[in-house]
Write a structure and sequence with these properties.
By secondary structure, the chain is α/β, with parallel strands linked by helices. The chain is built from nine helices and eight strands. The strands form two sheets. Strands 5-4-1-6-7-8 form a six-stranded parallel beta sheet, with helices on both faces.
């Protein structure tokens, strides 16, 4: 049976509000202007470190000698934040459970750090569904490097895998790994759908099990 590997932020959950709140705690501590939700959304996708670099750069406050300390504080806030502050996309839970019931091996490949990833999975009730979780600090490489996605497939014990993601980073990752991407169109994508290489696209999670079934049989 084919493995189905998911991105997290922008694919299974809408995390922008929660991440903005976390970042704004740090911004207040540093006496910097807060992030608006749309600004925070534009920084998501390349991992927590890049997110914070972008936020501090926009405030003309990125200092090489202080960044390590600021990032450590950001990570501590991130790890301590409640997972239920994130919103699952409508139908995501049902689709995950249907795929698991149909015998697919389910995995996760995200640039989110491992600690907050596990908090979110527990809050959503998804921890037992995931046969492999590759987060942004599990390997030296992050998406769009293909290594995390390929490692998730390896840990699931499957030569065939399908990646479900929402963004330019996910499209580039899937292409580099030589795996088909099923694109969730309601996530954090900035480019037109046709600009991203993908096998299929969907806007409602009720469509996903059927799409996975068709691609698995191809």
């Amino acid at each position: 049976m084919t493995a189905v590997i998911f991105d997290l932020d922008g694919t299974l959950i809408d995390s922008v509000g929660a991440v903005a709140d976390i970042a704004n705690t740090l911004m207040r501590e540093l006496n910097l202007p807060p992030l608006e939700t749309d600004e925070a959304r534009s920084y998501v996708g390349n991992g927590a470190e890049r997110f914070l670099e972008r936020a501090l750069t926009a405030r003309d406050a990125l200092q090489a000698d202080a960044f390590k300390e600021h990032f450590a504080r950001f990570n501590s806030l991130y790890a301590a934040a409640p997972g239920d502050a994130n919103e699952p996309f409508r139908g995501a839970d049902a689709a995950l459970r249907q795929l698991a019931c149909e015998g697919y091996q389910i995995g996760l490949c995200t640039n989110k750090p491992l600690a907050p990833t596990l908090v979110v999975l527990k809050a959503m009730g998804w921890e037992d569904l995931m046969g492999a979780v590759i987060a942004g600090d599990v390997l030296p490489e992050k998406k769009p490097d293909p290594a995390p996605l390929l490692e998730a497939a390896r840990r699931l014990g499957r030569e065939r895998a399908i990646f479900v993601g929402d963004s330019e980073v996910d499209a580039e990752t899937a292409a580099a790994a030589g795996l088909p991407l099923v694109l969730y169109t309601e996530g954090y994508r900035k480019s037109p759908i046709e600009a991203l290489v993908h096998a299929r696209a969907f806007s409602q999670f009720s469509e996903l099990p059927g799409i996975i079934g068709e691609l698995s049989e191809a």
